[in-house]
Structures are given as C-alpha cells and as structure tokens.
Amino acid sequence: MCGVRCAVCGVRVRDGITWQRVRMSEKEIDTGTVRPEIALSWRRSHLSGVNPSTSITINTTGVDPNSRLLRAAAPVLDQISQQIVDTGFCVLLADRDGRIVASLRADDRRIRRAVERLGVVNGSLLGEDCAGTNAVGTPLEVGHSMVIHGEEHYLDSFKGISCYGQPVIHPVTRRVEGILDMTGAGARANPLFAPFLARAAADIETRLLEGSKASEQRLFSAFQRVPNRNHVAVAAIGDDFLLTNRTAMDLLATADHVSLRSLAVDLAPDQSRLVTVHLVSGAQATVKVDRVSGAKGGALFTIQEVDRPERAAIPRSRDHRLSHSERLQEELQRARRRVDALSISGEPGTGRTTAVADVVGESSVSWFNATSIAFDGTEAWTSRLIQAIRERDAVVVEQIELLPASVLPIISDLVAAEEGSPRIILTSGPISDLPPAIAGVATRCPTRIHLAPLRERHAEIAELAQSILAGLAPGYRIAPNAVEALAAAQWSGNIAELKVVLRSAVDASSSPRIDVPDLPEDYRVTARAARLGGRERAERQAIAEALKSCGGNKSHASAQLGISRSTLYARMRALDVTG
C-alpha cells in the first residue's frame, strides 16, 4: 500500500487525507476518508483517555446564570430561537471550559429530545478530553470555527448528528469566551450553519464589548458617589479599568493597585470589608473595600493613611517612602559620582552585573570573574588583573567569594588604594553569607550597595515585570491576575528567573496581554490560592500533582484521586487549579 506516515502520530495516511487504519485501545477502527484535522482530534481524544462508547459528564455546579457570557448572549439566543423555528436545528452555548451554559434553543421537540438523550444539557462537559471530537471541544482546542459531520464525531452516540462550532472571542482581550454551536440530525452539517453562527457570534462579541463598557460605567458611578474629602485616596479598579483621585495618584504605586485588587477577590457583589495595609511607600493605611455589583469583579477602594503617634515628632525621611527600585537608583547615582572602591552584593540573579554596568557607564573598564581562575590558573589570572590596573579607569571583579586566599591581599590593597588609582568594583553574594576573610575585603569598600532578593520585593513585581516585558516584547502588558500569581512565587532565582518566566509567557501567549494561563505551570498560583487554609492547600497540591503525573489528563487524574471527573472540575475551580 502506498502512502506516508503522519509526523504527528505515526498513522499511515494516503494522499495526505485518507486514513486507512487508526489503532485505538485494543482494536483497529476503519476510519474511511477522514480530514487530517479530524484525525488529529481523534488522536488527542484517544490520548486523553476518552472511550468512544462513553457517556457525557454533567456538572451543573459551575454554571453561573449571571455570567458575562450568558448576559451578553441571552438576547442573541432569544433572536436565534425565533429564527430556527421549524428547521429541526438547535443551538447550544458553551463557556471557555466546554461546559454547556445555555438552554437548548430548538422548536422541534424531536431534535431537542434526541440531543438531551445524548446527555447534552446545561452543565454537560464537551471538551475534547471529556467528549472527544465535537463542535464545542474541538474549536476550543484549535482556536477557530469547525464543522463536524456525523461520522467525524469521536463518540459513537454523536455520529447521528452534525454540528458547527463558532468561537466567541472577546474584542478587548482576544480570548475565547465560549463556543456557539448549531446542531442538526443527519450525516452532514448544513453549509448555512457557518455564516449564520458567524453573524450571531459577532453580535455576542459586540454585546461583550458593550458589557465591558457598562461595567466600567458602574465603577465610574461608584467612584463619583464618594464624597470629595482632603487626604482620602479613592481608587476604582477593575480587570481593565483604573480610576483614581489626585490623593490616590500621589499615595499609591503601581504595585499597590495589584495588592488592593487582591483584597476584593473573595468578596461577593455589594459586600465590603475594612483592612489595614502597608503600601509600597512604607506608609500604613486603612482601606475600605467595596465590591461593586455588575462591575465584573471591580471594586471601589477608599484609602486613608494612618498617622502613627509614636512617630509624630520624628520627620519621616524621604527614603522611607521610596521603593527598593527607587532607593537603588539613588544609590547607583551616588556611586556614579564617586571614585572610591565599591561593593555590590546580593543573591545570584538580583542584577549585580547590571548594577555595575550602570555605575561604570562609558568608562574604560576591565571585567574579571573569579570563576575564570579555575580555567586560567591563579598566576595568569592575577597577572592580567595587575596589567588591567595599569591601563584602565576601573576594574571589576565579580563573585569574589570564589577568590583563593592567595589573591585576597592584592584585592585588599586595591580597595585601600589612594585617590588617583583605578577604581575597584567588587560583586559578591550577601555579605552576611561570605566567609570572614572575603567579607572583610568587601566591608572595607567605602561605598556598598546591597540588592534585595526578589522575594522581598513582591510589591514591586508589577513594575519589574512590565519593565522586563518592555525589553522582551514591546507592546505586551501583564494582566493583574498574572501579577498576583507572580507575586505569590518564591523566586529563588530572583530577577533572572523572572525574565525566564516572562520570556516563556510571551512565547505561550496568543495576545499581547499576559495572563495566568500563559505562565509556566509552576507559577500559576494566584493570590487567592496563596491564602488557602492548610487543608485546602494540601488538597490543591494533591490535585496539581495528580494532573502533572497524568500529563494534564483529567480522566486519569480523577481516577488517581478516587473522585469523579465532575468533582475534579468543581474542586479545580474552587481551589484555583489551572490545567
């Protein structure tokens, strides 16, 4: 038999279209002529552990009748229900998880009952990992519209119907909000399904955009209702909306906006709370949080700085109100004006080399790293160092904690050299972690700068991440939810690790907006998840580990955990588990 093998799954294809055999489970199924995209979907379904004879999983606990998708789609679906009278077709709406969230809109009772017998009702899960190839799960997987003719369905029970699935994409975020599906009995889908659903999806997308504007209007109205009082900061914060008064502009840093938003995550609409927080500036403030109903999670924040009596007589220094980044810039600026020895310390990845480059600028500089001694030998390395001192304006020696004892006197003499000698700049780990002899050299530098680890700079994550993104991918921005997830990480690799994570997120993102799903799996812990109690944290960890060990296959993970797939979905949502 002539033909070639598919590079994706190794199955022989004739003329790139006809699949002679696809081996699944213990048997071979004769597929006849199958489109390549359908064959790939069948392969994904098989790898997800879907049995062709399985029934549909139903989970009604996650269906929110007031979701923004349903609010935007309701009038469009009402109109469609009038247009499909006597056609024998029905229309379904699924959310971004592949869950049916709208009632079946069909006038023909026969098709309605037929679809319901298949288990396709509100709450049904039609993702490919649950229901195989179908016009809801497959468009979600590939990100564009698809027609699925009867025999192309993966489940045997679906082969008597044909469907067309059209993604509903939010005009602002460009993310798929749901799938609009049209279904009819028969071997092939009606060719008019495509233009009909494309127009309907566009109408829903328009209403999603209008809903976003309405949400912003509700936040704006709540903001305007707050009395204008001196020294009281007011901020209205939503997913893509920020409004502050002048006092809030002066008081709040960018990272404070993320911290404030996390205070409203678990509040119900119209619910309030009063908390005391520490701002990036170092100031303590009382914050009243009011969740605004109908504002898509938006909230109003009234912030009043707390005067601490015990410090009333002590003028607060300007440095007390500076973030680490701002203090560092001032220290680097002072270091640039000086010519004496400089020590820059901090954990690996905190930006020691970058800080040195900022200080030396355009000067004539020689760079040395103590790690090179292992390759060059102590004598050759020291000889080059001495030669550089005679020729350069400045000499940089990095990672001095790796210097052999025989070189320390030379470095110590350079640090103590009189004015007019080349400037010596040393980098190392935190001075408190250095051996006494090495620490003794570093502490003799008249100018010392310590770079704090990133885990102590969570309040600056938003600013740092956006700055890094500007260099990696100009025009990209990071969503507040993603900032919260990054702020919950431990960052043992510091800023260098953050750069790697953001580079990965840019590669994974389908739009210029970096959100939680774009982050590497280990960094998708949201602020809400970080606040879970001990038992819930353990449960979340168990689910995450099961999903990881099963390669993301939810069927296998639920079996491993000893729970149903619908329960797994419900707990994943409750505990903010992505996957």
Number of helices: 21
**CATH architecture grouping of the largest domain:** 2-Layer Sandwich
CATH superfamily descriptor of the largest domain: GAF domain
Q: Characterize the biggest β-sheet.
A: 5 strands, antiparallel
Strand line-up in the sheet with most strands: 13-12-16-15-14
Averaged pLDDT: 82
Number of DSSP-assigned strands: 23
Rg over CA atoms, rounded to whole Å, is: 31 Å
Class computed from helices, strands and strand pairing: alpha+beta
Question: What global shape is seen?
Answer: elongated
Helix content: 25-40%
The low-pLDDT segments are 1-31, 308-320
What does the oligomeric state look like here? single chain
Strand composition percent: 15-25%
CATH class of the largest domain: Alpha Beta
Task: For the record, give the distance between the C-alpha atoms at the N and C termini, rounded to a whole number.
Answer: 41 Å
Number of discrete domains: 6
Question: How is this fold's topology laid out?
Answer:
Blueprint: E1 4-5, E2 12-14, E3 18-19, E4 22-24, E5 27-29, H1 36-47, E6 57-58, H2 68-83, E7 89-95, H3 109-117, E8 124-125, H4 128-131, H5 137-142, E9 146-148, E10 161-169, E11 176-185, H6 193-224, E12 232-238, E13 241-244, H7 246-251, H8 254-262, E14 272-278, E15 284-291, E16 299-305, H9 324-337, E17 342-346, H10 352-360, E18 365-369, H11 373-376, H12 378-391, E19 394-398, H13 408-415, E20 423-428, H14 436-443, E21 447-451, H15 461-472, E22 477-478, H16 480-487, H17 494-508, E23 513-514, H18 527-530, H19 534-549, H20 554-561, H21 565-574
Parallel strand pairs: 17-20, 17-21, 18-19, 19-20, 22-23
Antiparallel strand pairs: 1-2, 2-3, 4-5, 6-8, 7-11, 9-10, 10-11, 12-13, 12-16, 14-15, 15-16
